[in-house]
Structure formats: C-alpha cells, structure tokens
Amino acid sequence: MPDLLNISKLSVEYATGKRTKITAVNEASLVIPSTGYTLGLVGESGSGKTTLGTSMMNLIEPPGRITAGSVNFMGRNVLEMGNEELRKFRWQEISMVYQSAMNSLNPVKDVSWHIVEVLKQHKKISNAEAQEQTLKLLTEVGIKQDRAKGFPHEFSGGMRQRVVIAMALALSPKLLIADEPTSALDVVVQRQILSLLKREVMSRGLSLILITHEIAILKGLVENIAVMFRGEIVESGPTDKVLFKPLHPYTEMLISSLLTMDSGRAMIRSLQAGRETGEAPPEVGCRYANRCKYVFDRCRVERPMLLEAEPGRLVACHKYH
Amino acid sequence: MSEPKPPNRLKQNASYVRSVGSKILGKRSGKIGVAILVIILGFVLVGTFVIPYSPTDSSGPAYSAPSSSHIFGTDYIGRDVASMIVWGAYPSMFVSLLASLGAVVIGLVVGVFSGYYRRAEGVLTGSADVVMTFPAFPLMILLGMLYTPTNTTITLILIVVLWAPVSRAIRSQVLSVKERPFVEAAIVSGRRNLEIIARVIIPEVATIAIAYFVLMLSVSLVFVTGLEFLGVGNLEAISWGTILYWAQQFAFYNGSWWWILAPGLFITLFATGFALLGFSVEEVMNPRLRAGA
Amino acid sequence: MSQVPLGALTQDSAGAPLLRLEHVNVFFKRQRGIFRSETSVVRAVNDVSFDVRESEIMSLVGESGSGKTTVARCILGLMPVTSGTIYHRGRAYSLERTSHPVEFRRDVQMVFQDPFESMNPREDVYTTIGIPLRRLANMRNETEIAKKISSLLTEVGLEPDKVMFKLPHQLSGGERQRVNIARALAPDPKLLIADEPITMLDASQRLNILSLLLRLKSTRNLTILMITHDLASAKALSDRTAVMFQGKLVEIGPTEILLSRPSHPYTSSILTATPKLQTGILGSAEGEEAAKEESTVSLSGCIYSARCRYATDICRAKEPELLPKSGASHLAACHNPLNT
What we know:
By secondary structure, chain B is an all-alpha fold. Chain B is built from ten helices and no strands. Chain C contains eleven helices and twelve strands. In chain C, the strands form two sheets. Chain C has an eight-stranded mixed beta sheet with strand order 6-7-8-3-9-10-12-11, sandwiched between helices. In chain C, strands 2-1-4-5 form a four-stranded antiparallel beta sheet. The chains are: A alpha/beta, B mainly alpha, C alpha/beta. At the A-C interface, helix 5, helix 6, helix 8 and helix 9 of A face helix 6, helix 7, helix 8 and helix 10 of C.
C-alpha cells in the first residue's frame, strides 16, 4: 500500500531578482502514511512551511520553481500530472484551506453558490442535488440554513472561514491541508474553527496537515508534529514527545520561548530566547549553527540529515548522529 | 568606541539612480522610446551645426522636392525645410519642457496640500475638477484668443490645462501615504506638518511626479504644435507647429508632401518617444514595488 | 483631580495617575446602502474611563473591534475624540491632531505595532532615532546626538556599529522593533504606549522584546501601557489589566486576580480560548457552543449579552455599570459576574 502522501527531497526556489534566488524549501521529506493521520507543520516566517504546503498541490507559480524532488500521492507524482489530471486531483483527493481564503470569496455571489460550484465542477450532479448537499455541508460546519443565501460581506471572518472549510470538504478529499486557517481570527473564534476542523477530520477519517507558526495550538489537535527551520524539516515525531521532550535545539528554543498563561515575569526575566541575526543562513553545514547553543565544529562543516533518533522520531542534528 | 562611518549617501544615491535607469532601459518600451529620442534629438543637434541653410531666408527654388542639397525639400518661399525643422525644434521643445515642468510642479504642490490638509481639500480639488471638465483644446484656443499668443503665454496656457490631472494623481498617492504608520510615527516623534510633507510625503510621491513629467513632455508638445497648427501662436516665428500651419495652407495645392511630412514625422516621433519612455518610467517607479520585509 | 466616582477610577493612593481617561467616546458615522441612505454610528470607543498610574505596567486587552487601538491613538492625539476628556499629569489637553505641545510628546511615546511600516523606508536608523532627539529633546550638537543614539541602541540590545546606518529593509523584524523602542525612548518619556509590540514578530523574538520592556521599566522607571489581544503577554508583563469588548471597558483589575478568577464572562471566554501548552487550545472537553455569529451586536442592555451564555433578562434590558466585584480594585461591568 503506497503512502497517502510521500514528499521526497523536495526543493523549491524563488527568484528574487535578475540573478538572485533563495531556497525556500531545501530537500524536505515528509510522509503521511494513511488516512486519519494528522500532522502539524510548524515554523516561523521564512521556514518554508507555506511553500511546502503549496507545492503539495503543485500550485507553485513563478518566480517560484520546484527544482528537485517528488510529491507522491498514493503512488502518483503530483508534480508530473497533466492539467486535466491535476484538476481532478485537486479538491477531490487533496484540498486546501488557507488564511486569506475567507477574503477570496466572490463578493457578488452568495455563500452556497461557492460550494455548489465546487460540487458541479467536479461531479456530474443536478443543481437540486448540489443545493441539497450544500445545505448539509453548511449545517455540518455550523452555518444555519437560513443564512445559506447570505453574501460574504454579511458574515464575520470566522463564519467565512467555515464556508471555506465546507468548500474544502465538499468532495470528501482524503487529505486536507490547512495553512494558517485561523491566524487572522480572534482567539475565541480560532478555538471554534480549530475545534470544527478536528471534529470534521475525526468524523470523516481524513488526514490533516495543519500549517502554523503557533506551536501551542497543536496539542490535542494533531497527533504528529514536523518542525521546519529555514527550508528544512529539522524534527518530526508524535506531538506530545516533540512538545514536552524536544530533540532539536531549535524546537527546544521554540518551546521554551512560548508565552503561555503559565509563563510569569520571572521566566521572562531569566530566559534568553533565541539569538537573533538578520544574516542569511550559512551555505555549508547546519543552517541553525549560528543560533544554536550546542553548536560544535562538525555542525559548521557538515549538514545534518533527518534521521531516526528514537523509534518514531526523526531529527536533523549532529547531537544525535 | 569606534565611530561608525555613515555610508556615502551620494554614492548610494548614484547607484540607485543607475539601477533605476538600467531597469527603465531594460524594458522594451524604454529601449524603443530612448532610441527614437536619440535619433530625433541627434538629428536636431547635429543639424544645428551641419545644415548650411538659414531657416528664415530663401535658399532654393520654392516647392522643391527632397534632394541631395535639401534633404527635406523647400517650402513655399524656398526655405530649406530641414533647417526649419532643426531651428524650429528649439522653441517647440522649450515650450514643451517649461509647460511640463510648470504643470508638474503646480500639480505636485496642489496635490500634496489637498491630500495632506483636509481643510484645503475642497477648494483645491474643486478647482482641479473645474479645469478638467473643460475640453482641453477648446479651452486653450479660447485662452489663446484672449491673450496674445507668445511663447510665454502659450506655456502658461498649457500649464493651466495640464496641472489638474497631475494634482489628482498625486493627491490620491498622498492620501494613501498618509495612512501609513511611519507618517504617524513621524508625528509622535515630534515632526511638524511641513517637515513631514517635505521629508516624508514628497519623496514617496516624487516618483509619480517624475513619471508624469516625462509623459507631459509628450502631451504638451502635441498640444503646443496643435495650437499653432490651428493658428493660435506667433505664426511668423519658426516652430514645428507653425511650419505645419503654413504647410497646411499651401502644400496641398501643389503636392509638396515633404513640407507636411517632415514636421509631422518629427512631432509624432518626439511625442511617441517620450510617451514610451514615460510608460517605462511609470512601470519601474510604481510605488507598489517596495523593498521586501 | 476630580472627585467624581467614575467606576474604574479607584481612590487608593498607590500612585498618582499619570494618565486619566474620563468618559471618552469615539464615534464614527458610517453610511451604508446604495444611495448612502442609512447612516449607522460605529461606537469605536464607548464611555471608557480608566487611570494609568505612575510606574505601573498596564495592559489593555481586547480583540479586533474592541477599540483598544483607538484608545491608544486618542491618547497620543493621532485621532480626535468625540467627547470626554484625557488628562495628562492632571492637565486636560486638547484632542486635535498635531497641536499637542512638545512637553506632551516628550513625556508620552509610542511603540507601533508594525515594525516595518512604522519606519520611514528611506531613512536609516541614525536619522530615525535622531528625529525625536532633535525635535523633542532639542539636541543640536552632532557628537552628542551620535553618542546618545549609540547608547540608546545599546540599551535596547543592538550593536550600534552594526545597525546605525542600516535602512529598515536591511534589518530583521526583532531588530526593527528594537529600533522603534529606542526611538520611543529617545526623548526620555515617562509613559510608553506599546501597541501590540510583539504581535508581528516571530515566536522566538517575542520573549526577548517583552523581557526588554520589563528591563527598561525598571532601569528607567517607565510606566507602560501595553495594548494587546494576547492574554499570555498581559499576564506575563502587567500589574493591572483592563479588558475591552466592542468599545466598552468590561473589566479592570490586578492582573493576577483578573486572569485567575475573572468576573466578566467575556474575560473568561478568552481565557479559555488562549492556548496553553499543557492542554492545547481545545482544552478540557467544554462542549463546543453552536457557532454564535461573532459580530452579533446587542441592541440594548449589556453589549456582550448577545454572545453571553449567562445572559438573563436584566442583561438584555439594562446596561451594567463598571463596579467593584471582588475587592475595591477589581471592577467588572456585569449583572451576573462570575467568581464572586
């Protein structure tokens, strides 16, 4: 049985000028073995997490370019699919909910129209059937039937994001990618939306990749975490293990610099969170070397590979191998 | 503690200008525009020294077609058309340059003040609107009738018509710049209004002003030659527009196409050249292109 | 100072108020409909009163639409107030935009939310920090200015040699925010208003900046008013916290108490929704409420009543006053407060 999603040594570059380019994703590998597998992909700005998410559906546009690697969905390489195959693949096998989606709804069409469109474009069903399924979906995501004909501007951000989620679930995909779905929303709404996502994922048996910069929301939401830093996956493993016993120094720094309700003034005063530099990562060796408190010689010459440090846990760090 | 040296701002500005310049020339419209202008202006410059004939006195038989001695032929009095084009270029371009400069400066001032000061808005935008409701040519002709058309008055008439669209564009840019947090930060830091206008707002809108200036060069030349062609201008003086005026009177009767073609060609090429260059400048200086975070 | 009992203005003498807001209202008229026929009034700030005491750190907490940023901008004179008074050191001042006297601008400074957008992209760090020194602190001597800028940069944790002449786009997010703080400190203010100072920074930088603010507070005896939507940073930094909801001040009191035993249901709901590492964001199974439309506006009575799960008839009929609930210094505007 091939993995549901197998990303192998994917590299993506962006051309930032006539001659300059940056590597947004550097030989990243990720596996979603089957349906029902939930993963949180966490990283700060510049980590490449959004680029990685976008490339899973082969949506990278110039000046971005996939330069190496493959994205295999149930054995088929997404990056080599033709347009027709891609069209069938997107929405039906994998679909995506992203941060600004709630603002990209068509302002002159009511919310049901959006879902009906998704249904009709991909399945041969009658208008009546599509409307019926749409109503069911809307109820499922918490939008009452009497609001089904409302327009996007009449809804709040959270409600619009629910519409987007309904669109993403309409064709019952096997994998849902959510890229910062709640970053623009208030805390209370964020909780509702994430709770909805979790419920849907569990009841439909989907796989979920949740991309976020806030690692604290992942606990209780996804079962596994992959941490990205400057284009590379530096650690992955079960959520609780990664959160409470991080292996990679970057993960360790992220967790320890978390501001939660438990942090107090004493903690802030004493802790010296990650050193900051505006410098580009070094060309050779480990990309985290300049900021790592455990750095030693080998780190500056040899790039660490993502290997198993404990059963079920991968780390790209010389401390472990 | 070692004193850090401030970077050489002059060098930085120079390299900025150079990089912008190469971007402008990199675009196709920029390349073609500059090429055209080089040819036209080159011709004028070289011709000033090379062409032996005077533009005002007869130097050959009237209505003679282009030949090796008169490359653009002669007009109805026997004056060499080529030399008239060369010498007539100066007043035309001069008026165009001054009018564009005046229009952009006034447009800039009005646009900035009407955008920055809410209270001034009504009067200033109102007057711009009023000017813009009049169709340009009839208005200019009317003004030309009222005030004897000399180079000075024509320049002023052009400025009257051209400043309004510039002020509109600048004003809208000022409105959006005003909303950006660094303007508020400047106020909190103690900067006063005039300083903010001079140091913060104007640098942001200067690029648009420059783009408009280049485009105005094209527009104003067409306007001034158009006016002269219609008879509004000092018809005794030699300029591209007046050449056309006289050519239009007589050339059709004896088929001296060269007399019309030469000035027409130069006017078109001049306007096109600056228009293309202006488009390229506008694209490159589009304020939406900002250095990334 | 006025003796009017104004809810949040407590009578204890823990420190004279450096800043006082009294019944401040900011209303906007909004025209809707195709022909602009309907005019609705948006109450961005609705009868807000509170003090900021000398040497304290206070947080003004609220979500989008709460009015917290509007309050900050009114204090700084960047936005006019519809009615109400703002006192600075006991003196009521004019609320027009740029007519604030220099003494005020020297004393009350702001750190803006967006580290990149609040710096002029064409001016380098030296120029940017030099402006308040020249305009507010009236410094003229170039050498002195350079020295002061260097010391400010060092104070905020930057190396002067490295950043002095850099332009904003050449700095990282954390560096920019530090420069902003240095700029705000340049005229030696007594009150620093920090508008969401860490929201736009990477997670790894947030702690550093908060730690910096804490340090500055003690070395300079600063008073800090922090505007934030994040309860965790409010808890970590502030002595007192005020919570706003849709323009109204709904709860105010000592942070420790307010965040461990909140009186107002709204405070309680954001507390529950703030992610905690031990339990994540979904926390204990607390039956998910049906999606209550977040922008439901209560037309009468308590402004939170439409969303409140504890709302009773009186809540919908009568607007609650901000009154002490548990202790003289802890006030909430609620008819059915929690934890009392």
